[in-house]
Design a protein that fits this description.
The chain starts with a helix and ends in a 16-residue tail after the last strand. The longest helix is centred in the middle third of the chain and has 20 residues, at 148-167. The chain folds into 2 domains: 22-83; 91-404, 2-Layer Sandwich (BirA Bifunctional Protein, domain 2). It is built from 14 helices and 19 strands. The chain is 30% helix and 22% strand. Residues 1-18 have low confidence and may be disordered. By secondary structure, it is of the alpha+beta class.
Amino acid sequence: MLMTRFLWKRSYFRLCSSATFPDIDTDYYCDTKNASEIKHNIHIRKGIGDIDRVLNTYKVLKSTPVCDVNYNSIKTNLLRELSYLPNKTHPTVREYEHEPFLLHEINKRKEFGEYKPLEFSEITRRLNLMRTDKLGHTCGHKSYYFLNQLAELEEALIKYTVSYLIKNNFQLVSVPDILPSNILESCGMAINSDRTQIYSLDPHHHGPDLYLSGTAEMSLAGLLMNSVHTKQSLPLKLAAVSRCYRAETSNIIEERGIYRVHQFTKVEMFVVTTPEDSDNMLEYIRKQQEELFSELGIHMRVLDMPPHELGAPAYRKYDIEAWMPGRNNYGEISSCSNCTDYQSRRLHIKYEENKVFKYVHTLNGTACAVPRMLISLVETHQDPKGKILIPTVLQPFMNHTTHIGRNTSVPELKIMKIKK
């Protein structure tokens, strides 16, 4: 369906000539009048980048003849310095200091009375629904097995989410999980550095430039690389289900258990639109998330994130945090970002209007992130009688099952000592 409607309609989408360098807005970044504004933006976002170095390199480049043997290396250095700079920041967000702004809350917290709610790990241990211990022979630290009906609940969440997005005219795409560095870096991810969260494949066996994707956002952006769209075809709304791989680890007590793991399943939204519509599109994506999650009966709060939480690509970002009763704390379950033309300039994604080519704006949003969604679901809908109640909207995707009980079909893990 996607290939017929999307890739091969020339009036809708076509490839432009391959571009080697990102087309960063030098009119803005290389204008000395904007230097203090850019320097302040780097400071409040706690980002890397040196605008003074950019301006000095640009000055040298302007004074160097194109025919000079050093011209291309100077240009390459300039583009590298420019690529370190973060995106601009939304004017409203610039006024925030260190704390996010609470927009509103969704659903009330569930009251448990005298019953003290258990944590996800304890609930699943009692019901024999998950394994996280002694997995060194398979996938090691920060990994898990979901068993029986817990695995079914994961699939039900994904199917519920995908069906919702398709009803709202998102086009479903199956994406690769292995990507080259230029796609990852163009989307704003750091690789081959102390701060990287990206797994790299062994260059001796798999090629020198291959990495595991951290989110389907990067694969969907890569699909549109070097493309030109008609204005009438926008907004373009895509969605993908993929495995996400993160090399990050954490010793923070709030991120214990399966809250932060090395691989998980996620449904991602990715939208391409015109610059004048991107602010409204971010609000649209946030409302899609709120409608999706509110039906699951979990309590949430919606946050407008401060500058230092935006990362390099985002112009503005909303987070949704769910209440996790067993942990007695909130945990992030999704975010959505407007990246304006940060990614499109690096990936050369444009649209045509009156025979003029302009850069699109790209936006992304989490539609469902497993397993954090499961933590909030299971802890919220635990029953003192020793079962997990299934939200009504998920029951059709679980053969109309109303609750999850103890798993007896898979034996419990028992550690045995084997003599050599």
